[in-house]
Amino acid sequence: MGARYAVLVAMILSVAAVADAAESSPSDGSFLQADPVPGMPLAYRDQGQLSDRVRDAMRAEVARILTDAGISVDEFTREELDEGRQPVDGVLVSILVWDKHPTYWKLQENTLGVTILGETVPSVVYVFYPVVLRELGIGTKKSASYTDEEIGRALARLAVHEIVHAFCPDHKHTRWGIMGHIQGARSLTDAGATLGGSAATALVEAWGTARDAIAQP
């Protein structure tokens, strides 16, 4: 398929104190556009492992972050999509919340998410649910506890991270925040996170170019 992979590698929680100290610093700037550009059609699929509350929180957080960046989300549907296949017509990005790494990708075991870039605009964004839970400390010796809203928020942050990779594959990671190369529990679950100014600007421009290209007969 000639796919390119943009892999987000998680932080090992034994160094969480270091990451949390970094996360207390300001992000690389928030960006708010008064009039979001026309909506990006999204779809998602999980394998039945998400509760309705987690799923709703994920959808709401994805929409909030993208709208804050300057892109409205008018469609966010649930779809049936086979592993590794391209999205259905009319859907630009499909978010797949998967219960394991596909073995043939040979990903590191702490990989939280990955993007499969299509030959054209449509992309498939994977977020690996058990890895997210483990990195949050849920079900481990840390016995961490998070609300459904916070778990949905973490899934959404990772999905948006990968959406930026889908449209802006050359955009660099930041030290912290949604586009951080290292993610900690705090950056994944704290309320109100936004894309940094550079990531938001790049995504709005790339989405506008993609939208115009798709609109042409």
Q: How many beta-strand runs?
A: 6
**Spatial order of the strands in the main sheet?**
1-5-6-4-2-3
Overall mean pLDDT stands at 76
Shape: globular
Distance N terminus to C terminus? Answer: 25 Å
Write the layout of secondary structure elements.
Blueprint lengths: L4 E5 L6 H8 L18 E5 L5 H18 L6 E3 L14 E6 L12 E7 L5 E6 H8 L11 H20 L17 H5 L7 H19 L2
Parallel strand pairs: 2-3, 2-4, 4-6
Antiparallel strand pairs: 1-5, 5-6
Helix pairs in contact: 2-4
Q: Please, could you describe this protein's structure?
A:
The structure is a single chain. The chain is of the alpha/beta class and 217 residues long. It is built from six helices and six strands, in the order βαβαββββαααα. Strands 1-5-6-4-2-3 form a six-stranded mixed beta sheet. Helix 2 (52-69) crosses helix 4.
Describe the structure concisely.
With 217 residues, the chain is of the alpha/beta class. The protein has helices spanning 16-23, 52-69, 129-136, 148-167, 185-189, 197-215, and strands at residues 5-9, 42-46, 76-78, 93-98, 111-117, 123-128. It has a 6-stranded mixed β-sheet with strand order 1-5-6-4-2-3.
What are the salient characteristics of this protein?
217 residues; 15% strand; six-stranded mixed sheet; disordered N terminus; 6 helices; single chain; 36% helix; alpha/beta; 6 strands; globular
